[in-house]
Design a protein that fits this description.
The complex is a heterodimer of chains A (262) and B (253). With 262 residues, chain A is of the alpha/beta class. Chain A is built from seven helices and ten strands. With 253 residues, chain B is mainly α. Chain B has a single domain, classed as MetI-like fold. The chains are: A alpha/beta (262), B mainly alpha (253).
């Protein structure tokens, strides 16, 4: 069984090697196909940089990044991404925003017009799952922050990517909305079984969602701890108060403490 | 009941005229220095046929120059903002060009094209294209990095990013610049008509002032101001019509 995503001794510096301290140093990890992995660590520790390396948006100085057995040498095209900002286009309706990746992605743009009805069907289905049914023709500014983030998730998944990269997607939301969206994301993942790398600084979020949690040290980012989460799924908000769950969060918390002291 | 916001600009304008009229009478300012607005209005009525003819000429010359600025400004703005390289290459040149007082190039235009309409059109054009270029380029160049990452990670082509995101995103900047640009175009036309014209409001005002008909000069200034405000209002409406999405957030807030 080979890894779907693999980083082997990867070091990366913004602007290329020699331009100041590296953002990521000597990072190695392996993620299986269909696995849900979370990366936690202090702000500015290089978690997001790891996503940029995996997606091919940033070249590595040394080491090797492989996705689906191929060495990453440029932007991948089977990736979906969502960020802390929903970055929806304000002049497009919710539905049109969700369809954007199909209009521009290398593998779909040629057939977009021909298959448009089919794509709209897929978009409706996704929007229904995340709870945005009936908001298809609303403009982004008519949606709340949580609803915009749901739409952003749909946009990241519309082209059925094999790999979903999430960079603190719920960080800007209030606690209730955030916890509700954990459930939404878990539902989507359990139905479709794409591979996920979630960057977050919320330890409860990482334990709720992930199969495995990596703790990343402060800059330069190194992977200092790895913890499998074997809690049964679907996990619920109620289960976040169970002793097992709380112990796991505490365990991770201790490692974050060490990272800060180091 | 008309809202105070709608009424305010009219009241402020009338207030200005009242203060002006009062000050002229109070301080007994001679007419050849500063005529009262009532005198300017009287001159406006008295010389209406000549004013109308010249105002119409200035108006269409301005619109031709402005039209060229829209086409050329939009195209150059798209080229400038399309990539970091073209932005770096062209922006300093644009700033340099904009720093040249346009009155200084009118004589050059006269050498090339003779006295008359063409220098006026070109002056209106050169003075009004800069804000359009800068705004369009800025709209393109300030694309959110996250959104760029989303699009790049889909394998989107540069041209798709430009057409689907960059251009729509720069449209509010474009329409906002039109309001400024059209008023600048009037400035350009009148400069050229004043320095080297044989028709138009600039020419009319120059002739009037050389014969000390100062009320007529001020009547001309008022007419230009009214044309400028009118065009500004029209383009403000156009802006609302085409890029209303950029305002909607502000309305609901």
């Amino acid at each position: 069984m080979t890894a779907f995503v693999e980083l082997d001794q990867v070091t990366m510096t913004y602007g290329g090697a020699g331009n100041g301290p590296p953002a990521v140093a000597d990072a190695s990890l392996e993620i299986r196909r269909g696995e849900f992995v979370a990366m936690v660590g202090p702000s500015g520790c290089g978690k997001s940089s790891i996503l940029k390396i995996v997606s091919g948006l940033m070249p590595v100085d040394s080491g090797i990044a492989r996705v689906a057995g191929e060495t990453v040498s440029g932007p991948l095209t089977m990736v979906g991404m969502a960020f802390q900002n929903a970055t929806l286009l304000p002049w497009r309706t919710t539905l049109e925003n969700v369809l954007l990746p199909l209009e521009v992605s290398r593998s779909h743009r040629g057939s977009f017009r021909r298959k448009k009805a089919e794509h709209i069907e897929t978009a409706h289905e996704l929007l229904r799952i995340v709870g945005l049914e009936g908001y298809e023709n609303h403009a982004p500014h008519e949606l709340s922050g949580g609803m915009q983030q749901r739409a952003s998730l749909c946009r990241a998944l519309i082209h059925a990517p094999d790999l979903l990269l999430l960079d603190e997607p719920f960080a800007a939301l209030d606690a209730f909305t955030r916890e509700e969206l954990w459930g939404v994301l878990q539902d989507l993942w359990m139905q479709r079984k794409f591979t996920v790398i979630l960057v977050t600084h919320d330890l409860r979020e990482s334990v709720y969602l992930a199969d495995r949690v990596y703790v990343v040290s402060k800059r330069p980012g190194r992977i200092v701890y790895e913890r499998p989460i074997t809690l049964p799924r679907p996990r619920t908000l109620e289960s976040t108060f169970d002793q097992d769950f709380v112990d796991l969060v505490h365990g991770l918390r201790d490692h974050i403490g060490e990272v800060r002291a180091a | 009941m008309i809202s105070p916001t709608k009424l305010a600009p009219w009241l402020a304008t009338i207030g200005l005229f009242v203060v002006w009229e009062g000050a002229v009478h109070l301080f007994a300012i001679p007419e050849f220095v500063l005529p009262a607005p009532s005198k300017a209005m009287a001159a406006l009525i008295q010389y209406w046929p000549a004013i109308w003819q010249n105002a119409f000429y200035t108006f269409w010359v301005t619109l031709v120059g402005f039209g060229m600025a829209v086409v050329f400004g939009l195209a150059l703005g798209l080229v400038t903002g399309a990539s970091a390289l073209t932005y770096a290459a062209l922006y300093p040149m644009l700033v340099g060009f904009n720093s040249i007082p346009k009155v200084a190039i009118v004589p050059v235009l006269v050498v090339w094209f003779g006295i008359g309409t063409i220098p006026a059109i070109l002056t209106a054009f050169t003075i009004s294209f800069f804000p359009i270029v800068v705004n369009v380029a800025t709209g393109l160049a300030t694309l959110e990095p996250e959104l760029r990452d989303v699009l790049r990670s889909l394998g989107a082509r540069k041209i798709d990013i430009l057409l689907k995101v960059g251009v729509p995103r720069s449209m509010p900047y474009f329409f906002a610049s039109l309001k400024v640009a059209v008023t600048l175009a009037f400035v350009g036309t009148v400069i050229s008509e004043t320095v080297a014209g044989n028709a138009g409001m600039g020419h009319l005002m120059l002739t009037a002032s050389s014969s000390f008909r100062v009320p007529l000069v001020f009547a001309g200034l008022l007419v230009i101001a009214v044309m400028g405000v009118g065009m500004y209002a029209i383009f403000a409406l156009v802006e609302r019509r085409f890029v209303g999405w950029a305002f909607r957030g502000a309305e609901t807030a």
